[in-house]
Amino acid sequence: MLKDYLTGREMADVGAEANRQALERFLVETKGYTSGDVIVDAPLEIEVAGEPYRSRIDLLVMAGQPPRAFMAIKCAAGSLGSREREIVSAARIYDQYQVPLAVVSDGRNAIVLDTVSGRKIAEGLEAIPDRQTAMAQIAQTVPRAYPRERLEREKLVFRSYDQLNVNVIRP
What we know:
Blueprint: E1 2-3, E2 10-11, H1 17-29, E3 38-48, E4 51-63, E5 68-75, H2 84-93, E6 101-105, E7 110-114, E8 120-123, H3 131-140, H4 148-162
Helix pairs in contact: 2-4
């Protein structure tokens, strides 16, 4: 067991939990986010083929006034590239509007992706926007809903990848 850096809750030290703790610390101590800017285990509840499906986004970074989701983060224990599609899907379906950035990280490296296009923007922890940049970018971002005609497929993609995760505690 270990103590979550942001929430203080006791967490099972399985899977990518140690990596998530490193990233939480990095977001606050290096990138200037506050504990109130980052939601740990943000609930993601969708309906797929008429059935409810519940999961979580490891970290959801909020920015702006009023605050809205700016960056969805998947913490990985292994290959970052194998988790890109999963976090992009989660960022596309999380809310009524797409979360602008999707990030996958192992706490030592990161891949930053544009949610709308699904393309890699940058790589490396330093590529994760700091709080000041996030506030400026979210102010300039027009919220975009994911295309309705592709929404069901995107939910299926997310669920398919999410169900492959091991060593996670499901809601």
